[in-house]
Design brief:
MetI-like fold; single chain
């Protein structure tokens, strides 16, 4: 057996396939053949991910409105006409790009911040305080995650649609708390407003945020809070000066994951909103599609898709350090 092992070690082909080219002194040696397999798998994944992105980028720089007949992954021309047309007049509706950007920004950032603040306080209560029905409430928080978001749209629609402000003969009536027997004129419907859509989106964002933050807060040592309390800090100071700074990486992760969903949210705004002035960028992107593929301005559609995706990329780059720190620290603590 020893002779066979020495013979195989002297085989140049076996030495070539088993040599370690990683340059790492610690950890397991990674043979060359296994590195080649991993690199091939990584290349296949990279090609699969980059294929649609390169196609959309190439299409957005095209001056033709028709869809290319051949597969083009690299731009043959650089034209910014599609971007200029989208920024000037995205659709036939009399809504400017800045208004659409404002609506999407208010919804995504506003919903993300409000949901994050409510979720971190609730998660801290579940993590640190012992109260009756604590476990039951945690299960109830988890139940909405088991249901599709679209399945909750109907009750949310009915709930938001029941809240209205009407002018009833010169007197303001808030429904359903007050009734107007004379009919009245409704001039505010919570359902058909960005505020109503934001409230509905917050209700869908809270369950995941609470569960995500609660698991991370459990890893923060309670001794730090006890030491701060001994030094004279009250409950609010402990929470805002001790807990929140330590949980900053996970807060960034939770906000970023929620921001992606809120920025690209389409179902709830499309179901709730009816006024073009309240439309978001994702709704406008859908409005650019027609009944037939030949009638779609493909270059403007691709340019709009790139513009919609850009804020997500910028947010990730800005919070990259916190996101990576939150993901890695959450995986080794506890």
């Amino acid at each position: 057996m020893a002779t066979v092992a020495r013979t195989s070690n002297k085989n140049p082909i076996m030495r070539f396939l088993t040599m370690n080219t990683s340059g790492e002194s610690g950890g397991r040696d990674l043979p060359l053949w296994r590195q080649m397999v991993y690199q091939l798998l990584a290349f296949i994944i990279l090609a699969e991910v980059m294929f649609p992105i390169m196609y959309i980028v190439t299409l957005s720089f095209s001056s033709r409105t028709t869809r290319p007949s051949a597969l083009e992954l690299f731009p043959t021309e650089i034209s910014f006409d599609a971007y200029l047309q989208v920024l000037d007049r995205p659709t036939a509706n009399p809504v400017s790009f800045l208004e659409l950007l404002r609506n999407s920004f208010l919804l995504s950032v506003g919903v993300g911040l409000v949901a994050l603040f409510v979720a971190v306080t609730a998660a801290y209560a579940f993590s640190r305080f012992n109260f009756k029905l604590r476990q039951v409430l945690m299960v109830l928080v988890f139940i909405p995650l088991l249901m599709p978001a679209v399945g909750l749209s109907t009750p949310l629609y009915l709930l938001m649609n029941s809240f209205r402000i009407a002018d009833c003969g010169g007197m303001l009536v808030i429904q359903p708390f007050m009734e107007c027997t004379a009919g009245g004129r409704v001039f505010f419907n919570l359902r058909d407003s960005l505020l109503g859509v934001g409230i509905a989106m917050i209700s869908g964002a809270l369950p995941f945020a609470v569960w995500n933050l609660k698991g991370y807060l459990d890893t923060i040592p309670k001794e730090l809070e006890e030491a701060a309390a001994i030094d004279g800090a009250d409950s609010n100071q402990v929470f805002f000066r001790i807990v929140l700074p330590l949980a900053a990486p996970q807060l960034a992760v939770t906000f970023f994951l929620g921001f992606i969903g809120h920025w690209q949210e389409f179902a709830l705004p499309w179901l709730f909103l009816s006024k073009p002035g309240d439309y978001t960028l994702s709704m406008t992107l859908y409005n650019m599609t027609g009944q037939y593929a030949t009638s779609i301005p493909w270059n403007r559609f691709a340019a709009m898709a790139m513009i919609v995706a850009l804020p997500v990329a910028i947010t990730y780059i800005a919070l990259q350090k916190q996101i990576v720190g939150g993901l890695t620290s959450g995986g080794v603590k506890g």
